[in-house]
Design goal:
By secondary structure, the protein is mainly alpha-helical. The chain is about 60% helix and about 0% strand.
Length: about 260
């Protein structure tokens, strides 16, 4: 599998010129659209919105004909903005991530501590696993497939989340609360880890509560950022394991033993 694009390969996107949205990039692709850019952006957004509606019920299995019918546009209009269905799906993924990051930022505005804001951004992503569903979500299945074909584009699609993290890591570092060697690279690594954990449990199903998964992930990230060791808290009681999506309810999923227990 082609690896994710690192911050160095991206050219340190967090420090670069303000990131353009997928809709602006789509509009800029067509000389025809450039003559009426604002209209082009709105039309591209309507196509992506139609794709999101279809993906919620059918995943990525919808056809181009079904899409243009849902969006109310002609086939040539679709291809004016998106040269392929994959380019559309990349825009859908970026649109979902951008929307979620905007919501996360709004909800975190009332949290004064940058470390706690960072913790919120990491854990809220994993807690989305509680959303109803009978198998790997559209985001998981398409992320893995598109990552192998378009690693740079997928990395750009997830950049908004990395930007959220690096902002708080820098703030916490300036306040002496965290001591990472490379804030930008740390934010990228946490992005990759958070996505990997989410995709793993989205495929296999949960065998413990999302709260447990989220807190284990945060504890690992916090230690990696060289934060102070938090006081020990009483062990939580996990809820009854949920039925796994692929193993008929045998509870397959992440490791159940604590570090140091059982066999390596």
């Amino acid at each position: 599998m082609t690896g994710a694009v690192s911050p160095k390969q991206q050219g340190n996107g967090s420090d670069a010129v303000a990131r353009s949205s997928w809709a602006e990039r789509v509009a800029d692709r067509s000389p025809v659209v450039q003559r009426s850019r604002s209209r082009g952006v709105e039309q591209a957004k309507s196509i992506v919105a139609a794709a999101r509606r279809l993906s919620e019920s059918r995943g990525s299995s919808f056809t181009t004909q079904e899409l243009i019918k849902e969006a109310g546009v002609a086939l040539q209009t679709f291809y004016r903005y998106f040269p392929s269905k994959d380019s559309l799906l990349l825009a859908v993924i970026e649109d979902v991530i951008d929307e979620n990051c905007t919501l996360f930022r709004e909800r975190a505005n009332s949290i004064p501590d940058p470390v706690e804001r960072l913790r919120y951004y990491v854990t809220v992503t994993v807690r989305a696993l509680d959303a109803p569903g009978g198998g790997p979500s559209f985001m998981t299945s398409e992320h893995f497939r598109l990552q192998t074909l378009y690693p740079a584009e997928v990395s750009r699609a997830t950049q908004a989340y990395t930007d959220l993290l690096v902002e708080e890591i820098r703030s916490a570092t300036a306040a002496g609360l965290l001591h990472p060697r490379h804030p930008e690279y740390s934010a990228w690594l946490i992005t990759q880890l958070t996505m990997a954990v989410f995709h793993h449990y989205d495929c296999t199903g949960l065998d413990e509560s999302t709260d447990e998964v989220a807190e284990r992930l945060w504890e690992f990230c916090f230690a990696a950022l060289d934060g102070p060791v938090p006081p020990k808290t009483p062990a939580r009681t996990s809820r009854r394991p949920q039925r796994s999506r692929r193993d008929g309810g045998k509870g397959r999923g992440g490791p159940r033993t604590e570090p140091g227990e059982g066999k390596n």
